[in-house]
Design brief:
The protein has about 160 residues and is mostly helical. Among the domains are: about 60 residues, no CATH class; about 50 residues, no CATH class. A two-stranded antiparallel sheet has the order 1-2. Helix 4 crosses helix 5.
């Protein structure tokens, strides 16, 4: 398909259409196509007001960039101040023993330990963390039983007595 508009002596289009410039509109996003550059002359900033010199426009652009950078710095400083003054959150798991710690103690992979616990009990509301003491001992025994690990023998302290 040919364009029906006259292209003049130099062969460059006097208009921009997809017939004359097949890459225009899809392949030249953010860039100036060679035919557009040849047609308009040099690469010109289209935001520059007509009649304003390039030096004046460069100065205005530089001022805008500096103002934007200052605004960004002020915003970042304000965010740092807000974060520094924010109250520290207390962890819901503070003082609890996690399954990860128990699994490491037993020489297991935490993922496997959680799988065993899912078959034995429902997941607690606070996640897989338990209060130290009796509940941790129950979890350890359930994990040993599920993994086929033997219970450790209770430690027997030698009685202090007379030597013979």
């Amino acid at each position: 398909m040919k364009c029906k508009i006259d292209h003049g002596k130099d062969g460059l289009p006097k208009h921009l259409c997809r017939v004359c410039n097949p890459k225009l509109g899809n392949g030249w996003k953010g860039k100036t196509s060679p035919t557009t550059t040849a047609f308009f002359g040099s690469k010109r900033d289209f935001n520059q007001p007509k009649g304003m010199s390039d030096d004046e426009w460069t100065e205005i652009k530089r001022g805008r960039e500096v103002a934007a950078q200052e605004k960004k710095v002020v915003r970042l400083e304000r965010l740092k101040e807000i974060k520094a003054n924010a109250p520290k959150r207390k962890s819901k798991r503070e003082g609890l023993v996690s399954v990860i710690d128990i699994a490491k103690e037993l020489g297991m992979v935490p993922r496997e330990a959680r799988a065993i616990l899912r078959s034995v009990m429902a997941k607690p509301a606070g996640g897989w963390a338990f209060t130290p003491g009796a509940s941790v001992n129950d979890v350890k025994s359930a994990l040993r039983k599920g993994a086929g690990i033997k219970e450790p023998a209770p430690k027997v302290k030698p009685k202090k007595g007379k030597k013979s």
